[in-house]
Give the backbone structure.
Amino acid sequence: MKLAVSILSQVTQVMIILLAAPLLAGWVNQCRAWLQNKRGPGALQPYRNFAKLFIKDVVLAHNASILFRATPYILLGCMVLAAGIVPVVATDLPFARAADVIALVGIFALARVFLALAAMDIGTAFGSMGARREMLIAFLAEPALLMVFFTASLISQSTSLNTIVETLGHEKLGIYPSLAFAATAFVMVLLAENARIPIDNPATHLELTMVHEAMILEYSARHLALIEWASNIKLMLYASIGLCLFVPWGIARADDLTIFLSVWNWRDFSTAQIFAYPIAVLCLAIKLLIAGAGLALLETISAKMRIFRAPEFLGTAFLFAVLGMLVHFLLEI
Amino acid sequence: MTAAFELLSVNVALVVIVIWLSLGILGFIFRDHPRFVHHFVFPIGAVAGLILALAAITNLDQAPTLATLPLGLPDFPFNLRVDALSAFFLILLGTCVFGVSLFSAGYFRDWTSQRLGLLVLQYHFFIVGMALVLIADDALVFMIAWEVMALSSYFLVTLDHHEPQNQAAGFIYLLIAHLGALCLLFCFGAMQDWYGDYTFEVMRDAHLSGPSSTVAFLLALLGFGAKAGLLPLHIWLPEAHPAAPSPVSALMSAVMLKTAIYGLLRVTFDLLDTQLWWWGALVLGVGLLTALFGVMFAAVQTDIKRLLAYSSIENMGLLAVAFGLTILFNVFNMPLLAALSLTAMLYHALNHTIFKALLFLATGAVTHATGSRCFSGLGGLIHRMPWVAGFSLIGILAASGLPPLNGFVSEWLLLQSFLLTPGLPHSYLNMLVPVAAAAIALAASLAAYVMVKFYGLIFLGQPRSTGAAGSDPGNVFQQIGMAWLAMLCVILGLIPHWVIQSIDYVTQSLIGAQLAPASAKNGWLLITPLSSARASYSPIIFMLMIVLVTFAVYLLVRKYFRRTSRRADPWDCGYPLQTSRMQDTAEGFGQPISQIFEPAFEIERVLPSPADIKPVYRKRQTDRFWAWFYQPIGNAVEWFSIKIGKLQHGRIQWYLLYSFATLLVLLIFVR
Amino acid sequence: MHIPITGQLINLFAALQLLIGFAMLSQRRVVSLINLFSAQGLVLAISTLIVAYSTGQVHLVYSALLTITLKVILLPFLLHRLVERLHIRWEVETLINIPTAMIVGIGLVIFAFNLAMPISQLSGTVIRSTLGIALACMLLSFLMMLTRRKALPQVIGFLSMENCLLFAATSATYGMPMVVEFGIALDLLIGSLILGMFFFQVRETFDSLDLQHMERFKDGQNKPGVTRES
């Protein structure tokens, strides 16, 4: 029974992330359109795009290798794996024991390396340039992300994301100044890793400024759809990671789903306990709406940087994250 | 029964050594029969390596076995000993030799008999030297083996001695190797504590005072650091590795550098009975600098083998960091954490051996097929050398430290041991440790940058020169050799539990602590170095999930959206006239790194003027250590030798006078 | 260990102080620098108020009010006007690149904290661990002054150093005597007015606010204003 519920919780969560990810991306775009006084295509546009892309013919370059064709699938595989680790609704995730935060950073890195290699496969000018820039951004963003996680794991004495969320959200409630630094760094990393505005512009095909778009220039049809989907999931995962590290309140605990499902026992529990799980889903929706709007706002008010300002930006993020760890040693021990 | 069994392991090692010796000599004698050398000498040597590795695996949990050979000087017999530490490094040697020797059986097939004979002799002497270093139990055998290793590898580096570049590389290598050896000689002298007996047994029993053990440790750090390529003694490494034939570079990088790590462990934890905390801090600092320096320089290289050589420097830096942490934990009496970081170190040593050997072999295959060692002459080889490309992909994923391959596991363990440091009773150390962890994370993610550059420029894209359009599928020996190493990369990544269990015997014998009691509770599926609430990782589930999801998505997409795909010219934003020269180059990949970390490089730019008809743009990044460290030393030595040179007059009476004066001085002292 | 909620809040604001210090170090634009300066003043005032609330010391409330009027409203206003009139909204050039400056900054933080540790162990206040941070912020402001080439960021660095000094005083001994604080406030006001006039003079002489031109005074051969570099 317990195992079945755990698995149910796991599957529900992965499904939520997979299916809601395009919606979040659409919502961010819609908000951005509103902020720029445009009407916008509506938050459901990504689904329409996918529907269109999936029924089209794939056009491959003559010298595309197996690596190029396999990458979209591997990318999606990596993202689904990551979705199984990040607790967005409840911390009842049996699969999360297989990988901790370091492995999570590793999954993102794996996906990124494959995408960069696929971009170099055709041997066009833009593809290889995009791959190089992506790796350039990544090599500073990845350790910054790791340091953000380390700050949280120093507080909770664990590198398992589940345990971190349990500790921060339920057990060791308090104000952690180090997390202020970590949050600043995390937002900067999120912008960089998801090809957002100060670093990259997701809406441009202006050749010299693009990073992510340059890498996937040669992809078409279902391959493109899979890659876009994977990057939507990545945005969703980053948003959820941010939410569960810095505003973990509302995430359900391990047995909340069991309580909710065991209707015959409801009278043994308080209302708060019974509805903790549905409330967690609601909380997630509200938090994501706000986060998406915030992201759109952040993108609207900032200008894109020259590519050589990017290392400086990310270096700052990295150092902020390191400072977060230091502040933990200074103030919280 | 047990006695017979105990004798087995050191005897197996001896038998294997004798086999290798005789194979080398046989190969030299029958050098005019290349088929014999290719199909007999190298494969037999490979199998001998595998036997050695297997024997060493069974020996990990045994008590140390000793042997004394009545060789050498009178009263100085050869003492040999195999304990858990030696056995672990023998496993490294054996597995690596199996892959590399098999590869060599195919690789050297079109060499002339003269070169082949020399190569086969030196190659096997080199392996024998490394094996002897690992089983030596007195300073004499150790130094002899160390010299055999150094000299035979020197001859291998200068095999193409007609090229002045290789001569220079060989010279630097020989110089630094011998400076290192000199330090080691003094180190052993300091450790035997005036007993006049140079067996390790005596050194273990000697109780050195603080200062003299510090002197011994620092000498060992210098001597072994020179071999391991720690800053600032790394200078020979990027010169010597490209000069040697690829299988030899593979052995040098994969195994020879590890003998230095073996030596450091042996001296610090086995022969010296105390450690001081600042040794750990020193090694940690040197290791961090080495790791960052190595990976930065790897990113700007334009020669595929130099890139790998710098990447080896980085990995040796990581090993040194783990070593420093181990010393710190051990001194501050935290046995479990010391065991964790030592495990991370040994695991990483094993991983680096495997993936670096694999990558060097891949460069061998690539160079052989295309005749080019420069990135600017390569590209698109995935189409013509699919096997090599596939194995190299595994190699670079492992080298970038990506899950679920082996490189990730050791980095994971290392980061875990960093995360658990806040208990150190030293406030500065406590705060520097997170900074060090950040530097490690930076080095690890830069390694991914380097590896994407390596793979992307060699195997992907379009051929950058006509030579790159050549191909060489390699013969079956080469494929087996690479497949073996690639398979180990995957296996070592998937079964960390068993590897950690084996390493536990080593940590138990060195620092008296092991991880197994803490991690055994959670079974073989998860690795949990300390407790399952703290951290857990299961590569098998991880791998299964990725593979399953990837295939499921593939099948679903095929089932519901089955559409034909057609081939066309690349899109590339609609630019016509694409040529292969428009792809990103090795210089392009290096440029951001040299811009961000500009202070680390000595950059020399030649920019053309706008009016130039034949503009030439040139940029060279060189090592600042030449100017900072070696140039002053060289100048000082030169100055000094000029002064000394004044003693030389050419008149016989003066020389007699020198001898006479020396005699007098000596007599005064002896009195 | 358990820290009361006010202590936690003050720790949080101390961390924010440090965050602002580093943000100033990494900021290129003068206008944002001024905004950060006023944010710093605000954080200082709030943390002073929290200390006042938790210890019941009334004079700290006055100190906080003084901080708000002077450093959150008046001085930033003056500085903004100065920027408008001098037309120096463009980016600030730094002498060493920003990540390097930040790495040095991290070193300073470690150093400052170790320096402050014995003192803060002697101090009996609830917020003693913030002393190290206050010291670190002060050093960071100094570092910012060191790494900037233009005059205005240096003035801001100087002003923020004073903020940190006040923060250190609050955290170590619950603030300075009121008289001293008033004196410092007055000094600051007059100092910044004088500096404002000084800027106009400098610009009139050199046609720029780049302080590197001041190096010319050293030689004595080139009369300022007579020779002008192309």
